Amino acid sequence: MKFGIDSKNGKLNLGKISISMPKSRYGRITAGSLLIVGGVLGFLPILGFWMLPLGVIVLSHDLHIVRRGRRRVTIWWARRKGSPVPVKDLQPIQQKDHQAPGQQ
Question: Which of 59, 80, 65 is nearest to 4 (CA)?
Answer without folding.
Answer: 59
